[in-house]
Amino acid sequence: DGEAAYTEHCAGCHETGMLGAPREGQPQEWEGRSDLWQAVLMEHAKSGYFEMPARGGKTDLPDEVVAAAAEYMLEMTFPDRPQDCTTSKPLWSVGYLRLDAVLEKQK
Prior knowledge:
Blueprint (H helix, E strand, L loop, with lengths): L1 H8 L1 H4 L22 H11 L15 H15 L21 H7 L2
């Protein structure tokens, strides 16, 4: 469940903007980020990005949980934004997609 994963592992920073984290539901704070929303966010959530620790600081958090939380955050912030891939299913439901695989698919 994306909402539960987000609440447990991400909301502490992304609801308050701690350490410069863009806040969920605040699209203006996400301006200037990549157009490959899901793929890039999934990779950042998994590997860490600037002050954000990988996997919310929980190194054993499964890819599926990380992806569900990240996707939930994007859906709440940009509910009308199209998916990055050709499926209408969320990325976490079809398996975790690595950034390099998504970029290769776009060539």
